Give the backbone structure.
Amino acid sequence: MARRGQGEGSIRRRSDGRWEARVSAGYSITGKRARRSYFGRTYAEVRQQLLAALHDAEQGKPIRQKGQTVGQYLTRWLEDSVKPHRSYGTYERYEECLRLHIVPALGKVPLEKLTPQHVDSMLSCLTPTLGAYCRTVLRAALNKALKWGLVTRNAAALADPPRHQRRRGRFLEPEEAERLLRAAQGHKDEALFVLALMLGMREGELLGLQWSDVDLDGRTLTIRHALKHVRSLGQPGAFRLDETKTDEVWTVPLPDAVVAALRSHRKRQSAAKLAAKSGRWQDSDHVFTSITGRPQYVSTIGYHFRRLLKAAGLPPMRFHDLRHSCGSLLLARGVDMKQIQELLGHRDIRTTMNVYAHVLKSVRRQPADVMDSLFPLRG
């Protein structure tokens, strides 16, 4: 039998009588050279498989590797595809989802043998909300594997999504919002609650806001960062400024009430700095800080918010619901959906429309009401 050239693969007869064709498949997850084997009862059978694999390689299609498990692939995907290109918060959430749920259930399954049944079995052991998130993460990872030619189908996309009721946030009515703002008057972080309600900023964006991003004379504010508490560093007070949720930077105009609240807050912060014991105040450019000038924890904001709700006589709600209240109040007063999208920093206007679909139902009556006022019913 003529010897094949380098990269052309090889064919041999095994001791058990079967024929085996082998071809280089690049490098494995560990960095070692990987080979792909094809087996058959005859020389012609394995030769045909070898020629098909070499043809795929010539067309730029990767030769799928054997032996790589789901766990090995996900580890590499997380480090090579997620960590360099997504925010640290996203990386941290993905890592936790893989480590606690996906890898324990599917990690030992060979990647090329992963089926929708495997994924369905994993999802059945999780709550609907958690299962939906894990399926989303796994589907994103397998989309990359599909693009790289490591699998022939996305098993997560083919698995049945968990059935769960999407949680609808609570929205403040104008009178309720006014009660909340009255309860916040004089609070150390009064301006934070004003910005959350009037600008719809996320918690991380508020805590990551810096004075260099605020132009009180020009009455604008630029949202550039989100503050993240980096738990994985092993230090209880470790923070970092990260990109916003949508990786965007946008500037918003400020209402007079927000400008006034920020001016008062800056005076209050300067007084706190002067009153702090020598060496205790930590200088930073953050707008919202602790009593020692350090960045604040989200949990601290949540604690103060719950107390404000109680003081205002309002039922429990999430801090994030202030963001939704902002959008709802604006939309109900006829503000254009595109303007609301730009204020809230949604990347896609469809997100804005989905979140505020309940308000749109009432807004849709406006054209009919206008026509009724123009042309009253004649009887």
In short: Confidence is low (pLDDT under 50) at residues 27-31.
